[in-house]
């Protein structure tokens, strides 16, 4: 048996034994020919993250961007991807939506020196390592990136959805170099965001800013749909500037104001990326809003 060196996505359809997903294939497209969202079942066993088809209403949502490169990649373009990239397969990531007792969620800004999605706002997260459960991986990444140390018994966890992530995020910005399925997990804590903020110790090599968002701010952020044209209409009751915690190279936090318009930036079709909330994060925040509404919480 081939030695497993990292967690990769495996796919099963029509009751066929799971097969390791190819780097250049669309994971979402494996289960639907025309749609960008589908329900699947997922499991992490024996260091394999397996996705399989399921009946509607009985699975977890899996979504890709409307402009996902693997939706439009031609056979010739796929064949031209360097072999060292093709051999990577599809990696598995976990991202944590940490919800405080007063219903705010933590976002972090990736440092500008990171190769993948630099200067972009995302939830804390990263790769799932060998022999880890999704929750354990999420708590480890949360601790490494933010300094927040939470035990599984301190939180209630819920898998919100899956996102097919590609970098660069669209073909107009270059051929794909990274391909992930990101699992978005919601963690509910009994601590307020002020209590959690007091324990923040971000890793400055990875995090350049921290921000707590509430439902009204999230609604403004997700109204800026990536891939669409036109201006974003400001929502009533949302301040034009947002207080964020800047992280110095030494890891010291200081408060500053960030224009709301920055969080409402859309993914550019070409050129350098801009500071924004990632497309996958917007999807996860939409799922979070639906979860709040399902709990009967006014938002």
TrEMBL record:
<keyword id="KW-0378">Hydrolase</keyword>
<dbReference type="InterPro" id="IPR033716">
    <property type="entry name" value="Nudt17_dom"/>
</dbReference>
<dbReference type="InterPro" id="IPR015797">
    <property type="entry name" value="NUDIX_hydrolase-like_dom_sf"/>
</dbReference>
<comment type="function">
    <text>Acts as a decapping enzyme capable of hydrolyzing monomethylated capped RNAs (in vitro). Hydrolyzes monomethylated capped RNA after alpha and beta phosphates to form N(7)-methyl-GDP. Shows low activity towards unmethylated capped RNA.</text>
</comment>
<feature type="domain" description="Nudix hydrolase">
    <location>
        <begin position="87"/>
        <end position="238"/>
    </location>
</feature>
<keyword id="KW-0479">Metal-binding</keyword>
<dbReference type="InterPro" id="IPR000086">
    <property type="entry name" value="NUDIX_hydrolase_dom"/>
</dbReference>
<keyword id="KW-0464">Manganese</keyword>
<dbReference type="GO" id="GO:0019677">
    <property type="term" value="P:NAD+ catabolic process"/>
</dbReference>
<dbReference type="GO" id="GO:0035529">
    <property type="term" value="F:NADH pyrophosphatase activity"/>
</dbReference>
<dbReference type="Pfam" id="PF00293">
    <property type="entry name" value="NUDIX"/>
</dbReference>
<dbReference type="GO" id="GO:0006742">
    <property type="term" value="P:NADP+ catabolic process"/>
</dbReference>
<dbReference type="GO" id="GO:0005829">
    <property type="term" value="C:cytosol"/>
</dbReference>
<comment type="similarity">
    <text>Belongs to the Nudix hydrolase family.</text>
</comment>
<keyword id="KW-0460">Magnesium</keyword>
<dbReference type="GO" id="GO:0005777">
    <property type="term" value="C:peroxisome"/>
</dbReference>
<dbReference type="GO" id="GO:0140933">
    <property type="term" value="F:5'-(N(7)-methylguanosine 5'-triphospho)-[mRNA] hydrolase activity"/>
</dbReference>
<dbReference type="InterPro" id="IPR050241">
    <property type="entry name" value="NAD-cap_RNA_hydrolase_NudC"/>
</dbReference>
<dbReference type="GO" id="GO:0046872">
    <property type="term" value="F:metal ion binding"/>
</dbReference>
<protein>
    <recommendedName>
        <fullName>m7GpppN-mRNA hydrolase NUDT17</fullName>
        <ecNumber>3.6.1.62</ecNumber>
    </recommendedName>
</protein>
């Amino acid at each position: 048996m081939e030695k497993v060196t990292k967690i990769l996505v495996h796919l099963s359809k029509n009751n066929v034994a799971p097969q390791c997903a190819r780097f250049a294939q669309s994971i979402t497209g494996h289960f639907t020919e025309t749609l960008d969202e589908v329900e699947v079942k997922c499991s992490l066993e024996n260091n394999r993250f397996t996705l399989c088809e399921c009946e509607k209403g009985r699975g977890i949502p899996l979504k890709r961007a409307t402009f996902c490169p693997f939706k439009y990649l031609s056979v010739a373009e796929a064949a031209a991807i360097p072999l060292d990239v093709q051999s990577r397969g599809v990696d598995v990531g976990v991202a944590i939506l940490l919800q405080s007792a007063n219903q705010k969620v933590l976002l972090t800004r990736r440092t500008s020196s990171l190769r993948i999605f630099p200067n972009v706002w995302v939830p804390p997260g990263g790769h799932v390592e060998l022999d880890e459960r999704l929750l354990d991986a999420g708590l480890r990444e949360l601790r490494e990136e933010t300094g927040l140390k939470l035990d599984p018994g301190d939180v209630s966890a819920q898998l919100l959805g899956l996102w097919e992530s590609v970098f660069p995020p669209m073909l107009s910005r270059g051929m794909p170099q990274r391909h992930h399925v990101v699992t978005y997990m919601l963690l509910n804590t009994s601590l307020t965001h002020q209590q959690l903020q007091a324990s923040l110790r971000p890793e400055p090599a990875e995090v350049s800013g921290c921000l707590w968002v509430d439902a009204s701010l999230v609604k403004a952020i997700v109204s800026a749909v990536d891939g669409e044209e036109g201006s974003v209409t400001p929502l009533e009751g949302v301040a034009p500037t947002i207080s964020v915690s800047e992280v110095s190279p030494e890891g010291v936090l200081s408060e500053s104001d960030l224009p709301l318009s920055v969080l409402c930036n859309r993914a550019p079709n070409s050129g350098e990326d801009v500071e924004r909330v990632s497309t996958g994060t917007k999807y996860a925040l939409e799922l979070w809003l639906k979860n709040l509404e399902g709990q009967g919480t006014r938002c």
